[in-house]
């Protein structure tokens, strides 16, 4: 079971501290959201899982954390300055503004009027001045994607690491797009995070690697708890491909508002490295830079046998962190009817993604002995470095269980008066609601096994 409506998720996210409207006390700012205490944990856990799978579990991928402010020349050569735009229309009757390609019936979504302006291109990139004087002569863009900083660092990474083709560079980071109509909660926003890999391969092997990475990415989302029936693969039609793409396959997810892209896997060919190589060569000539070895300006690799320089092809799996969080929330959301007829709301996250891994609950609020035992157990659990462990000193076990069901905590551990006598505690499983007594000294390993093996 998933959420029936987006409103269900939005209400839960605000009530339980996952996601808030940004700048809310001043009326908010459209297309921007803040991640609360639980949201930041869920988001970080998703990014950690992606980083583990991309960088730590492989020997052919390196990490990068590049700057957000971007030299305009980078985005000129990449084609963004000329092509990164959406068709925009205005409603002449109510003055609302829309993306033309979102108006499937050719009418304003606010007032249903068809009295619209002709579509015109709207550049999506944010521009900011650089330096003390804002005279328009020195500016930079906030990057609209994380990919370009990977491409322009290609040679730096290649020269500083022992890699040859195929190999990849991975990055997680913020990107910014001045969306005309942000919509559907955190699905389409103006400030967001991307998890992107640029995987460099030999020309001719690109179609093979495109298939490999499509399969790997589908498997990874399934491992995060996304159900197979809510995922589809879409081969993007040729007339809808980005300017750099030879082929793109989108992993589509059934969000509450409909089937939309969760991640795209693109075959970017040699477009980006080739464009930046040409751009740098042109810059060197204009700047009259003398180079004895002209290969210094090539974002290329040298063939061991022929000694010729060749520009690699690139396969790019690119996923939005925020869309991933939204999919996980939707997938985990359940309302169950219990044997007593009452309902409980559950977020059944995979344990490695859960914002709080375990809650230690003293049976009686503020009882010094129980709280001390709970705090000691929390300390032992925290040393396992599993994620966030909390002591919840509420004194109401029933309400504590319901709260932790609703925020997705896999295990609740109750310290009661028997714990002081026989050194055991009760562990309750979120999904089955089963309870068992376990020796306190064995609980850290029990929790670690539960988090790591489920």
Describe this structure in words.
The strands form 7 sheets. The chain has a 7-stranded mixed beta sheet. A 5-stranded mixed beta sheet has the order 21-20-22-23-24, with helices on both faces. The two termini are 19 Å apart. It has helices at residues 6-16, 37-56, 72-77, 80-83, 147-152, 154-160, 206-223, 271-286, 321-332, 368-382, 397-407, 417-422, 443-453; strands at 19-21, 33-35, 61-64, 69-70, 85-90, 97-99, 120-123, 127-129, 139-142, 167-176, 191-201, 231-235, 247-255, 258-269, 301-302, 309-310, 313-320, 333-337, 343-347, 356-362, 388-391, 411-415, 424-429, 435-439. Residues 289-296 have low confidence and may be disordered. Among the domains are: 6-68 and 143-270 and 312-328, BirA Bifunctional Protein, domain 2 (2-Layer Sandwich); 354-453, Rossmann fold (3-Layer(aba) Sandwich). Helices cover 31% and strands 28% of the residues. The chain is an alpha+beta fold and 454 residues long. Strand 13 (247-255) and strand 14 (258-269) form a beta hairpin. The chain is globular and about 80 Å long. The longest helix has 20 residues, at 37-56.
Features:
5-stranded mixed sheet; 13 helices; single chain; Rossmann fold; alpha+beta; 454 residues; 7-stranded mixed sheet; BirA Bifunctional Protein, domain 2
Offer a concise description of the structure:
The protein is built from 13 helices and 24 strands. It has 454 residues and is α+β, with helices and mostly antiparallel strands. The strands form seven sheets. The protein has a seven-stranded mixed β-sheet. Strands 21-20-22-23-24 form a five-stranded mixed β-sheet, sandwiched between helices. Strands 4-9-8 form a three-stranded antiparallel β-sheet.
């Amino acid at each position: 079971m998933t959420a029936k409506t987006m409103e269900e998720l939005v209400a839960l996210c605000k009530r339980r501290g996952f996601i808030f409207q940004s700048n809310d006390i001043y009326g908010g700012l459209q297309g921007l959201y803040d991640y609360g205490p639980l949201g930041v944990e869920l988001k970080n856990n998703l990014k950690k899982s992606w980083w583990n799978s991309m960088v730590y579990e492989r020997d052919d991928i390196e990490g990068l954390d590049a700057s957000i402010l971007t030299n305009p020349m980078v985005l000129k050569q990449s084609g963004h300055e000329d092509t990164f735009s959406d068709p925009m229309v205005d409603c002449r009757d109510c003055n609302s503004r829309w993306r033309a390609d979102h108006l499937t019936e050719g009418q304003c979504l606010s007032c249903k009027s068809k009295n619209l302006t002709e579509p015109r291109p709207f550049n999506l990139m944010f521009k900011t001045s650089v330096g003390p004087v804002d005279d328009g002569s020195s500016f930079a863009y906030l990057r609209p994607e994380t990919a370009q900083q990977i491409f322009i660092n290609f040679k730096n990474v290649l020269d500083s690491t022992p890699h040859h083709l195929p190999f990849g560079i991975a990055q997680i980071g913020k990107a910014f797009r001045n969306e005309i109509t942000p919509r559907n909660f955190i699905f389409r926003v103006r400030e967001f995070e991307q998890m992107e890999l640029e995987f460099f391969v030999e020309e001719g092997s690109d179609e093979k690697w495109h298939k490999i990475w499509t399969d790997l990415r589908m498997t990874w989302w399934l491992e995060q708890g996304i159900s197979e029936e809510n995922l589809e693969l879409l081969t993007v039609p040729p007339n809808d491909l980005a300017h750099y793409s030879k082929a793109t396959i989108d992993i589509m997810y059934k969000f509450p508002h409909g089937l939309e892209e969760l991640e795209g896997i693109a075959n970017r060919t040699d477009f980006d490295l080739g464009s930046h190589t040409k751009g740098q060569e042109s810059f060197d000539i204009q700047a009259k830079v003398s180079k004895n070895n002209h290969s210094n300006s090539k974002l290329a690799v040298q063939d061991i046998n022929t000694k010729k320089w060749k520009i690699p092809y690139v396969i790019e799996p690119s996923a939005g962190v925020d869309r991933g969080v939204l999919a996980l929330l939707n997938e985990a959301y359940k309302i169950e009817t219990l044997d007593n007829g009452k309902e409980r709301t559950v977020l059944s996250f995979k344990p490695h993604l859960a914002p709080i891994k375990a809650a230690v609950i003293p049976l009686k609020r503020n009882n010094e002995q129980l709280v001390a035992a709970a705090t000691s157990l929390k300390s032992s659990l925290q040393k396992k470095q599993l994620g966030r462990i909390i002591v919840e000193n509420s004194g109401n076990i029933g309400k504590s269980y319901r709260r932790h069901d609703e925020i997705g905590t896999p295990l609740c551990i109750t310290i009661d008066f028997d714990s002081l006598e026989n050194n055991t505690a009760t562990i309750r499983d979120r999904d089955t609601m089963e309870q068992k007594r376990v020796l306190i000294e064995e609980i850290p390993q029990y929790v670690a096994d539960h988090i790591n093996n489920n």
